[in-house]
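Homework help board

Subject: predicted structure for assignment chain

Our instructor gave us this sequence and asked us to write out the predicted structure in token form, then describe one feature. I got the tokens but I'm not sure how to describe them. Can anyone check?
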Amino acid sequence: MPTYEYACEACGHEFEAFQSITAKPLRSCPECKKRKVQRLISGGAGLLFKGSGFYITDYRSDNYKESAKKEKDAGKPKSESKSDSKPSDSKSSKSKSSGKSKKDAA
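My token output:
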């Protein structure tokens, strides 16, 4: 449901009302109780979060998310080159040690 903005022509009080789209506009001012309230035309906010429980980090832009991911990836060491070198080193050291023991035994 949208939030509508209203202004009283009698006392100048401005307020917001959370109403259904099909609801009729309000006419009475909550401050002075006169029937001089007009609904204001606004550009709209699309989606407006008010109150506690919302964090600024919950709704980041795509550009921010992409740059944060690049920074995170830049800080990590490349695991592909390390993982390729470790198994080959361990295999060659095992084969060398097992090869020597067979020659020594024979």
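Reply (TA_rk): Your tokens look well-formed. For the description, you could write something like this. The beta strands are 3-8, 14-18, 37-39. That's the kind of observation they're looking for.
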